[in-house]
Amino acid sequence: MPSEEFTAFQAAMAARPAPPPVSSLDEQRRRIDEAMGALPLADGTEAALLDAGGVSAIECRPVDLPDDAPVLVYLHGGGFRIASALAYRAYGSHLAKALDGRVLLVDYRLAPEHPYPAALDDSLAAFRWVVASGVAPSRVAVAGDSAGGGLAASLALRTLAEGPAPAAVVCCSPWVDLTVTASTYETNAERDQLFSRTSAEEAAPLYLAGHDPTDPLVSPVFGTWEGAPPLLVQVGGIEVLLDDARRLAEVASAARVDVTLRVYPDMPHIWQMSYPAFPEAVEAVAELVAFVRRITS
Predict the structure, then answer these.
(1) Residue 247 lies in a domain
(2) Domain containing 219 — which CATH number?
(3) Would 9 be classed as within a structural domain?
(4) How far, CA to CA in Å, does 255 sit from each of 176, 240, 252, 293?
(5) How many CA atoms does the CB half-sphere of 66 hold within 13 Å?
(6) 98-141, pLDDT tens digit by residue?
(7) 279-296 and 89-99 are packed helices; what angle lies between their axes, rounded to 10 degrees?
(8) Is residue 58 domain-resident?
């Protein structure tokens, strides 16, 4: 059963007046940035806009940052077409405070203006910029949620061939199969109010732009995972992406990767971003942080 705090949070969200429908993708992006970008930073943290190897990014960090702090390169969700580093700035600051490290929010280019491989190229460039700045790859983890979780997995596969690889990868509610054929698109359709087969079928072609959806660099469940870094996969039990997460964990585990799959019962898509509003979000972020600390220490 979900916690009382989660139930109350969901009720409060449902009671909010529904916003008017958006007229364009640009308006949807603007609304998200205005609403989420206005959220306050975690106490004791700061955020700065910077150029990460030619890619715009926002770095969140505690004001008193340890000299040997780990770095978490974070790739936001949004179906490859919406959201931004600004929209994730508050959440990134909470992650940075919990980690006691740096969190680099990558403002990768969005589809349909910039289809594959633009988002992956930008994510990889930002990761390499961190390493080039003098941080050992063993101190750098990569994480993301939804489409960003898929990008984190794709980055891991790409760095297996090109190097250097991150020390660890975290995929939260990951979208890792752009063929959109998982059975949980149907079995969890009525319970998942944040993502759907329709959303996936609208977003995938914009990102793919005719590219093969079974290419492992867009759908990491089709990849060869031998030699990949440790992987943490978190997913909610009511998500349409539940099977994506399970299959990613199965494929990586079959390749003898150190994999942890956590299915949080009754949790919706990217519930982690509601941290610290209810215990399940706190637990998930604590697990993420402990995993990154363990691997990068």
Answers:
(1) yes
(2) 3.40.50.1820
(3) no
(4) 17, 25, 5, 24
(5) 10
(6) 999 999 999 999 999 999 999 999 999 999 999 999 999 999 99
(7) 60
(8) yes
